[in-house]
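Key result, reporting period 2: structure in, sequence out.
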């Protein structure tokens, strides 16, 4: 069963390590958009691609 948005936000706020990672990912997305001019949808699609690749 997937987490709801409310549960994810609670987890981010409750754990400093999770909150730090969330901030890093958010900052990286903003930097990617700023440096490349990619639209939000392209950044989202990039994140979807990366989701399954981070461990490899």
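The corresponding designed sequence is given below.
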């Amino acid at each position: 069963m997937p987490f709801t948005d409310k549960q994810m936000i609670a987890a981010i706020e409750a754990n400093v390590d999770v909150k730090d990672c969330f901030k890093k990912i958010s900052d990286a997305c903003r930097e990617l958009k700023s440096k490349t001019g990619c639209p939000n949808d392209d950044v989202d699609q990039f994140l979807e691609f990366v989701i399954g690749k981070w461990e490899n």
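The mean pLDDT is 93. Residues 16-36 form the longest helix (21 residues). This case is discussed further under Risks and Mitigation.
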